[in-house]
Amino acid sequence: MSEIEAIYAHRFSENERVQKDVLWRTLCRHFFQHYVRETDATLDLGAGFCEFINNIVCAKRYAVDVSEETARYAAPGVTTARDLGAIPDAALDLVFCSNFFEHLPDKPAVGRTLDDIWRTLRPGGRLMILQPNIKYLYAAYWDFFDHHVPLSHLSMVEALVAHGFAPRVVIPRFLPFTTKSALPKADLFVRAYLLCRPAWAILGRQMFIVAEKREASA
Q1: Of 117, 43, 126, 119, whose CA–CA distance to 80 is shortest?
Q2: For the chain, which domains are there?
Q3: Residue 14 CB partners (closer than 8 Å, separation 6+)
Q4: Which of 72, 73, 121, 200 is the most exposed place for a label (fewest CB within 10 A)?
Q5: Given this model, what pLDDT does residue 218 score?
Q6: How far apart, in whole angstroms, are the C-alpha atoms of residue 210 and residue 126?
């Protein structure tokens, strides 16, 4: 078992994984699906337990994660890979990253990853990011051993612009920091939270960003 697999085995019990899947099913159906077309070829980068890619409706589904365990959790019809380099150029309409960039070793690695995402997207393709926002977390951000890169919505936007993306949606405060929060995860509660934007400003600790691929300058 790799270090990251050992960390996640300790962090989430089997019951918590089931609860997470229920949460993600609601999030996909009532929020993220608004940004994903049924005709899209969609990649979940850093897919983990595949909660997003298993629950989103689209034409083609891909999951990339360094963990060998990801293939075990992927639903039928999801193509899995261990590295983004396995995805051909301009093969995708949308890349989704949830709680991913903070796990990279440093900011140059963030930049290289953004370049590789840009490569895989078709013209007009989108990058959708759900990411802990250091601006509203401070010390709690570092309670997880595998967090390395602190990013706010402002620094994330700067990185996106520098690497060929045009941010279209920027929500600094969206979801609570972690699914281990004591907040209820039942479908009706999550749907009510999604509809109540004032609650985001109080409880939100994660940013949500949608950025569009810009064509390279001549």
Answers
A1: 43
A2: 3-213 (3.40.50.150)
A3: none
A4: 72
A5: 44
A6: 7
